[in-house]
Design goal:
Layout: H1 3-8, E1 11-14, H2 20-30, H3 38-46, E2 55-61, E3 67-76, E4 79-87, H4 96-110, E5 115-121, H5 125-133, E6 137-146, E7 151-159, H6 174-177, E8 183-184
Parallel strand pairs: 4-5
Antiparallel strand pairs: 1-2, 2-3, 3-4, 4-8, 5-7, 6-7
Length: 186
């Protein structure tokens, strides 16, 4: 299956409580040192399905039901924050990362965010390139942000997220799609 076919077979949908176990397996595989706990995901989802929700979580589901990626957004008082975004290694380079990020940018716009922030490990240049393609700019460093490793986080900001934000400049570009374990709040 080529990259285009692989990506077309993936369904992006709202994350629900029954997705926590497969998301956690992927989380532990991709972020072994600083994985989120089940409780953290439960807490995030608890604030995602009501009229005043401040959290939105999406999963990427294969046709066979496997979870291949996930992404989360927090939006409060005009400011959004990418809480987490990750793609299974088998789908690195397929464009799934840009699809998930597009969902978050569009949701931030729909929530009225004037800015969208994120933290990304300073030692993850692939993810940084993706965020730069989407218009995120570096705005600072959070020292020792990721624990227990003590790796710094690069803080990036996208001003005025747009609802019609394109998925990427060139979705077929290998460099554009070379993204996997991207980032999440420590």
């Amino acid at each position: 299956m080529n990259q285009s076919d692989a990506l077309r077979s993936v369904n992006l949908r709202e994350m629900r409580w029954w997705d926590i176990a497969p998301v956690l397996r992927l989380e532990h595989e991709l972020f072994p040192e600083d994985s989120w706990s089940a409780g953290m995901f439960w807490s995030e989802l608890a604030d995602s399905r009501h009229p005043r929700a401040t959290r939105w979580y999406t999963v990427a589901e294969a046709a066979d039901g496997r979870i291949l990626g996930y992404a989360g957004l927090m939006a409060v008082a005009g400011s959004g924050d990418v809480q987490t975004i990750a793609v299974s290694r088998e789908y690195w380079g397929t464009g799934l990362g840009p699809r998930l990020l597009t969902v978050l940018v569009r949701q931030a716009a729909a929530a009225g965010c004037e800015e969208l922030l994120l933290e990304v490990r300073v030692d993850n240049p692939r993810a940084q390139r993706l965020y730069e393609r989407f218009g995120f700019k570096p705005v600072g460093i959070r020292r020792n942000y990721y624990q227990p490793s003590g790796v710094d986080a690069l803080v990036m900001r996208l001003d005025h997220p747009e609802p019609d934000h394109p998925e990427s400049d060139d979705p077929e570009s290998d460099e554009a799609n070379d993204v996997g374990a991207m980032s999440h709040d420590g």
